[in-house]
Amino acid sequence: MKVIVVGSSHGGYETVRGILAAHPETEIQWYEKGDFISFLSCGMQLYLEGVVKDVNTVRYATAEGMRAQGVHVFVRQEIASVDANAHTVTVKNLVDNTTRTESYDKLVLSAGAVPFTLPVPGNDLKNIYAMRGRDWAKKLKLKTVDPDLQNVVVIGGGYIGVEAAEVFAKAGKHVTLIDMIPRVLGLYLDEEFTDTLTDTMKANNIYPATGQAIKQFNGKDGAVTSVVTDQGEYPAELVIQAAGIKANTDWLKDTLKLDDHGLIEINDYLETSAPDVYAVGDATLVPFAPTGGHSRIALATNARRQGRIAAKNVLGDKTKMPAVSGASALSVFDYHFASVGVKAGTADGLGINTQSVFVTDTVQPPFVTEDAGNVPVYFKLTYAPEDGRILGGQIMSKRDVTANINAISLAIQGHMTLDDLAYADFFFQPGFDRPWNIINVAAQQALLNK
Ligand SMILES: Cc1cc2nc3c(=O)[nH]c(=O)nc-3n(C[C@H](O)[C@H](O)[C@H](O)COP(=O)(O)OP(=O)(O)OC[C@H]3O[C@@H](n4cnc5c(N)ncnc54)[C@H](O)[C@@H]3O)c2cc1C
């Protein structure tokens, strides 16, 4: 069997890996239009902050390594179109500008997404960057050490925007973080958490300008000088656009069914509208466990899970994509947070009723002092008012207690309720936590409130 895999990031890599692991004799052609396979944007912040020194190591696989395992790797070769009836693709070689046709038995698309460009005057000025992929990583790295750069505006207060803002604040720049929604990280965390994080950002040279819409970019001699919103003008010698992504699917619109956002329509088995064509990753929706519907959750975790399922199905299985809950985590200076599922702040948009309980505690028993690391932990548990089914959780502390959110993710996936969590057995060791884990405490409190 001959399988063609398009895209070398998370979804593409996992598909290739999955096929190789189960059936190494499969003929796999793996295409990447960029000049580098398997760059991981997830590692960009670590690279930009100097924790990881070499941009070329931020990857899962090398072309040579995969070729040694029998995979036919094609770099700087773009799949320009798909003829689903003929089971062929047109390959454009971007080095010599030639094209050729390749046949496939199965085709897996992990073409991902590109950063959204704001459609406002001045968006073609120089020094308006994005934070995705190796090329931008290299350009941004140069800016972190540019002594002439003083003012950075980051557009988008999601986790990518916050990562970018932190990189440049740590590099000594004045950073303005603009978002349309009223709170930075508002899609990930409720107010009890974002208030603290916003104060932390301000104390570290990041100035949130939220609830504002971008109107235009001003420039001089072709380079950006400021960003104008409906409420103010912010100086900027560098702008980083992190205001969402656009599915990289324009080239597929005559071949596959796409939704209104350009996302590829897939079924539970990751099959597209064309026979033997599968799609995974940021250009698709994922089944969302808390609601039972489908959501757009652009995470590597989802792309990897889909890649694994696509590999199985390409090889003849009929495995359904399991529902996910969108667990994610981030550090903002000395705070670590994680969240999963539904928040009080996102429930209305999803059309569901929720109740939440917010609890604070210290990480360890009271006899351990704060000097010894016994800092506060903040936790919010969100559940269905009618039956106490767990729908989401958020946690934050200066100690890294984020892994608790993985337990909430399991609780969502397993349809657990407050009763299940109230007395669930979690370990106690005074060096780590308290006899009642914060999840127990929150569930017990929620049961009292009911
Ligand atoms: C800064 C940043 C930090 C992130 N951090 C995290 C994190 O910590 N945890 C997490 O879970 N997620 C994180 N993500 C999200 C994660 O990176 C994405 O969800 C993931 O990369 C999606 O993978 P993908 O395979 O769908 O596509 P993409 O990563 O978008 O890659 C698609 C690839 O396909 C190639 N391609 C596209 N079209 C063609 C074509 N026609 N022919 C050939 N090649 C093509 C592209 O060049 C690209 O290399 C982060 C993202 C960013 C930008």
TrEMBL record:
Domain Pyridine nucleotide-disulphide oxidoreductase dimerisation: 331-433
Cofactor(s) it depends on: FAD
InterPro entries per record: FAD-bd_OxRdtase, FAD/NAD-bd_sf, FAD/NAD-binding_dom, FAD/NAD-linked_Rdtase_dimer_sf, Pyr_nucl-diS_OxRdtase_dimer
Keyword Ribonucleoprotein: no
Residue ranges occupied by any FAD/NAD(P)-binding domain in the UniProt entry: 1-307
GO terms, molecular function: peroxidase activity
Keywords, comma-separated and alphabetical: FAD, Flavoprotein, Oxidation, Oxidoreductase, Peroxidase, Redox-active center
Sequence similarity: Belongs to the class-III pyridine nucleotide-disulfide oxidoreductase family.
Name the UniProt record assigns to this protein: NADH peroxidase
Phylogenetic classification of the source organism: Bacteria, Bacillati, Bacillota, Bacilli, Lactobacillales
